[in-house]
Amino acid sequence: MKPTLILLVVLFAIQLAVPGYMIFEQNQILAEGTAYKFKTRPIDPYDPFRGRYVTLSYAADQEVVPVMEGAEIESEDWVYALVGVDDEGYAVLEVLTDVKPEDDQDYLYLETFYRRYDGGYLVSLPFDRYFASEENAPKIESAVWRRQRDEVEDVYAKVRVYKGKGTIEELMINDMPIKEYIEIQQEQL
Length: 189
Description:
The chain is an alpha+beta fold. It folds into two domains: 1-32; 33-188, no CATH class. It is 29% helix and 37% strand. Strands 1, 2, 3, 8, 9, 10 and 11 form a seven-stranded antiparallel sheet that branches. Strands 5-4-6-7 form a four-stranded antiparallel sheet. Helix 3 crosses helix 4 (178-188). The radius of gyration is 20 Å and the shape is flat. The mean pLDDT is 82.
């Protein structure tokens, strides 16, 4: 075979392997990851390449995460955030460390972006977009924002965490999947 043909075959294989791995990785997180509830605050933008989605802002993005004793962490460092659950059943980032945790401890691999005066850091969770159809995205946004008017009690993202990565499994309103909640709301109109 000619070198050009071999190079072309390798190029095609790489182009197929990259998205294939990304799909495999997301499915592995959903299948094997631990489910956590992250409190949300959404806004509704539009991405011309990927369609409508609801951008999710999390309570954990607003909270200062302490640094484990002995860890050497600076702003814009990639760190391991140990994930736990608070008294209400919501996910919390307990502590940041520069050492990869043991396999039995759930963690997220995140970047620090701001150091607080008390030595803790603010971080940004990487799973911040919930994609929906053109028709459903505005309905989801409307339903989620009802929380501010006390019409909806509980809005959270059910996120699966596995080996430092997380992916949104479902957006929930009052412990009901968002699509089901929207259907019930439409029937009541």
